[in-house]
Structures are given as structure tokens and as C-alpha cells.
Amino acid sequence: MNAAEKLETRCVIVGGGPAGMMAGYLLARAGIEVVVLEKHADFNRDFRGDTIHPSTLELIYDLGLLDEFLKQPHQEARELRAVVNGQAVPVADFTKLPTHCKFIAFMPQWDFLNFLSSHAKRFPTFQLHMETEVVDLLMDGSRVTGVRAKTPTGELDVRADLVIGADGRHSIVNNRAGFERREFGVPIDVLWMRISKKSDDPEQSLGFFQHGKLLVLLDRDDYWQAGFVIPKGQFDEIKERGLTQFQNEIVSFAGFLRDRVAELDDWSKIKLLTVQVNRLREWCCEGLLCIGDSAHAMSPAGGVGINLAIQDAVATANLLAEKLLRGPVHVDDLREVQARREWPTRLIQGMQIL
Predict the structure, then answer these.
(1) Cβ distance 348 to 296 under 8 Å?
(2) Global pTM?
(3) Residues 135 and 34 in one domain
(4) End of a domain among 240, 273, 306?
């Protein structure tokens, strides 16, 4: 067996999603050597969080990136409207916000991550390793000192003063660390699918609410990304009733899709998102900090997950960058990140599980 390749850095970030990539960008911008490890070969995965709130757009403005950011493929919503039992109902108006962007931006997550990573690579202290899947933590006694990863060419050991786990709701990092996770019951799951779009389709905003059910349509220019909310655990029952009944239920919400629901001709085209809401009791230990979905999985309701993850990254950089420039950080420094970010996380999760 060949020995693992060795790499040393100040900070290694596991996961190149919104939390990991933003943390990597901000730390590299502060002059810290940072390595981001992403297990996939690219960022092109469907049905990921893409709702960029005005507060996040304000951060992008503060970083001097907004003009270029808004040149990326996206849609803008200055107000949110819902169709409730056939009646259009206004839900939110962003035009009076004291921000530079008085709208929500809907941007495919792969475009967001490609944009952020391209700018991070301009810093000499930033490295991004794709197709690099972390499989374990490296330890020195009770302190985490790095990670072990699989790559197409063999194993890689990355030693670092700080490991940041940003590897999502199925985090290998918090699992290997043995962190205790508190689960909150959520009564829904979501079925995601693609339906083609026509030029004369009506504009969509928040979704269709009908007798306690919800259909969301996100505009992807040439297709709709549709999300159908179902009671938790009922996907098998829906499949037993057959595709025709499922197609008819979609049409009952959005009649203009009647001539296209036949595109959903196989259950493989319909992806189940098992909705989870959970939170780690402790986000850190010596040498390791978890942020984003790795620390707190959110419901897709309101599109808050990506924005909370980015706010975690900002707090991490603000609280730790100066200390990391000098050397390793203490677990008490890491607990400051949790202390700052846990209250808004608890608040929003509490609203999501009502």
C-alpha cells in the first residue's frame, strides 16, 4: 500500500458548499493559508438551496463583488406572492429594505459556488481540491489535527491548526468527532422535479397553497424546478397510487402545466428530499469547528439554509481570522462562534418546526 500524500496548512475546510466556500474565501482574503476539500468533481447538483436573501447580497456588496455577482444567471423577486386556494395573496415586499439590493435573488447553487471559488482562487493562500472525499479525522490525543481523504490518485492526509466541518447534513466530520445531535420532528418531505417552461407561462413567486398542501415553482429560464411538499414518509404511498394520479395532483395546483406533466413519466425523475431539522449540542472541540448544515440542518422553508450557512462563515472569519494568523486557536475561541450563531439558528429552527 502506498503511503498517503501529506499536506500542511493553517486551516482545512471539509466541504465546498456555501458555508465552506465562503469561509475559505474570507479566511484566504485575511491572508490565512486555507485548503477546501470537496468530494465531488464539480458543483453541478440539482435541488440545492439557491435563495439569496438581501442581507447576504449586502455582504457580497461589502466584499466588492456585487456588480459581477449580479451578472451571473439569476432571477430577482422584489415581492413574494402566493396563490392560496386559487387567490393571489401578497406575502412580502422587499422594496423598502435599507439595503443595496431590495430583492431576493434566485441563483442556481452551482453558479454561486463557481463564482465564489473563482474569486477565492485569486488569493495566493487559497487551495481548492475537488474529488477529495474526507473519510476520517487525524488526532493527537483529544485534539483534531487534520483529516484523511480519498482522491483519484490515492489517500491524502491534510494537517492543519483548525479543521472546519462544512460537509452538510450527512457530515462525516461531526460523525467521526462523535458530536451529539438533537433531532427535531418535521412533518414534511419534499419531492423535487423538473418541468419544461414556456414563454407564456405566468410568473411565479412563492408557490401554490391548496387545502394544506404546497407546490413551489422556481424559474430556471428554460424549465421549472418544482417542489411538492408531502406528509413525511408518504412517498411510497404516493408511488403506489401511480404516476397518473401524481401528475393530476400537480395540475390541480398549476393548471398551465397540464400539457407537460407527462414529462414526469418515471419515478426516477422525481427526487425525494427527506426534510430534517437538527442541531449539534456542541459545534466544536479542540482543533475542530462545524458550521452550516454540518452544525444545524434546516428545513427548506423560506430558503434560509444557504443564508444561515453563509452567516456562520462570516462569524467564523470575523472571530477567528486574526487569531489564526498567529497560530492555533483554542476551543474557547471556537465556542465564541457557536455562541454568536446558535441563537439565530435556534430561533429560525423553532419557527420551522411549529
Answers:
(1) no
(2) 0.92
(3) yes
(4) 273
